[in-house]
């Protein structure tokens, strides 16, 4: 299938697909005689996995670690669960960090509004 059709099916832009190929997230595909890339159907699932993973906050290097080298291989469920649990822990830590920053900002605002009553 041509890159435009793959982009349409997956909802991922053609430039992103080319980027994924350039950076090894999807294997380089063969080209037709006219120079067009010709992607196998298996790329649909792989591209969707990359797109969903990015939307969940995974970096491209993190995604690369859990994608199988062979795009026809299934992603190991245990690997996905492990990566999701780790990302959830990262998100929880970021939320704690942001709550601490929010608390400090609130204290600073209170102080700036009335330094004598804030107790800072």
TrEMBL record:
Pfam families: MerR_1. One of its GO terms (molecular function) is DNA-binding transcription factor activity. Keywords: DNA-binding, Transcription, Transcription regulation. SMART domains: HTH_MERR (SM00422). It comes from the Bacteria. Residues 1-69 form the HTH merR-type domain. Gene3D superfamilies: 1.10.1660.10. This is MerR family transcriptional regulator.
């Amino acid at each position: 299938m041509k890159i435009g059709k793959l982009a349409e099916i997956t909802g991922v832009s053609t430039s992103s697909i080319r980027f994924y190929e350039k950076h090894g997230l999807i294997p380089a595909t063969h080209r037709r005689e006219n120079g067009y890339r010709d992607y196998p159907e298996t790329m649909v699932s792989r591209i969707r996995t990359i797109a969903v993973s990015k939307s969940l906050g995974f970096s491209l290097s993190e995604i690369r670690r859990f994608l199988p080298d062979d795009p026809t291989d299934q992603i190991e469920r245990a690997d996905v669960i492990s990566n999701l649990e780790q990302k959830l822990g990262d998100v929880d830590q970021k939320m704690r960090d942001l709550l601490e920053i929010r608390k400090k900002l609130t204290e600073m605002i209170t102080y700036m509004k009335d330094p004598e009553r804030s107790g800072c």
